[in-house]
Amino acid sequence: MASKTMPSSAFTRDLRLRKEELSRKLKLSDSTLVQMASISLDFAMLYREVAIQSRVFDLLTQEFEKTKIEEAKDTPSLQILDQAVPPEKKSRPKRTYLVAFTGFLSLLSSIFWVFLKEFLANFKLQNPQEFIKLQTVYRGVSGDLTQFRRSLLRFKRTKV
Fold first, then answer.
1. Which residue range forms the structural domain that includes residue 148?
2. Is the pTM of the predicted complex or chain greater than 0.85?
3. How many Cβ atoms sit within 10 Å of the Cβ of residue 134?
């Protein structure tokens, strides 16, 4: 086209300027496309990383919730309603009743013991042969109880 028209023609000059401008824009758009491809690749990698991190966060949140539920099941449900306050007056056990009961029991035991000793003394005087038999039985039972007590003590020592 340039050969048929004059080089100084305004039309030719406009076309040449447009061609140079389009060439410049093409070069610019080529570099922009390369940059866009690079940016698009970076975006895809970052988006993938965010998706992975989001999935990991969701899984960890689920595990955390499960752990909290298990811990709530294992933890005893004890709630302190009021602070403990020591009582002003002791209610139980009644010490006076315990002392009186123990004293009464001691008195009865002592009386029984005295009567038993008196009975055995009279029995010894009235029936000496029978008393010797009774004494033999008592010694046998006493020896058996002593052996039983010793075997229990040995058993406790070996167990501990």
1. 108-159
2. no
3. 14
